[in-house]
Amino acid sequence: MLSAARKKLLKALINKLGLKSIDSNLLDEALTHPSFSFEVNKENAPDYERLEFLGDSVLRLVISNYLYDKYEEYDEGKLTKIRSYLVSDDFISKLALTIELNKYINIGEHEEKDGGRLKESILACSIEALFGAIYKSLGYNFAKEFIYKMYNKIDINGEEILFSYNSKEILQQYTQGKNKDLPVYKLLEEKGLAHNKTYVVSVEYENNELGKGEGKTKKDAEKAAAYKALMLLKEKKEI
Fold it and tell me: Which residues are catalytic?
């Protein structure tokens, strides 16, 4: 049973997001991290994992439909790459922060002290679980319109996303076109705890650093570094 304080907090979120008819208990479940359920010591206490599983599928379907209609000229490969970016933890965790979802998450004391309320993975799971709760409680069409409304607030540029997604390949084509050399990626730093690391990578060409990037994986950091390099080369009108 929800406490009076929890009901008040959820009501504020419901009013903020226009979710008037949503099931409050389902919404509470969507915004409950497993660490909280573990600490209250209730057997089979609900958390967001099942709704996150559902919401992930709902989000992918909605965004697939969104991109199919928005980019009629793109083939399946391009649409897949753009969708991959738009449903990534990095992107949707930032989406969660635009509605301050972190303020409404039930989280365990230890996880709270560890900064869990602002962790990319927790924010991403929470917003996917929210989408799942909206779908389960209010139906697919409502969920679709809600997600569309969130994404329409962002300037989504398909060509720019594809350019960023293919940045390593484009940079390699540029360097090999000049002298057949490959760009060199170097790991500069690993930041954060073991379970929540951020990697910092630089990319060099002909012993000159062209860019630095960060990411939750080395691959993402390399991609970010390559993108920065391409922006520099564009600025110099070399590409």
Answer: 56, 128
> Residue 27: pLDDT band by 50, 70, 90 thresholds?
very high
Please determine whether the domains at 4-157 and 166-235 fall in the same fold group of CATH: no
Buried b / exposed e across 131-154, counting CB within 10 Å, b at 16+?
bbbbbbbbeeebbbebbeebbeee
Question: Phi, psi (5° rounding) for residue 136?
Answer: -65, -35
Q: What is the CA radius of gyration of the chain?
A: 21
**What is the topology classification, in CATH, of domain 166-235?**
Double Stranded RNA Binding Domain (3.30.160)
| pTM for this model (two decimals) | 0.86
Q: What's the token pair of residue 82?
A: 């753009």
4-157: CATH topology is Ribonuclease iii, N-terminal Endonuclease Domain; Chain A (1.10.1520)
- Paired with 190 in beta bridges are 199
pLDDT tier at 42 (50, 70, 90 boundaries)?
low
What pLDDT is stored for residue 29 in this prediction? 96
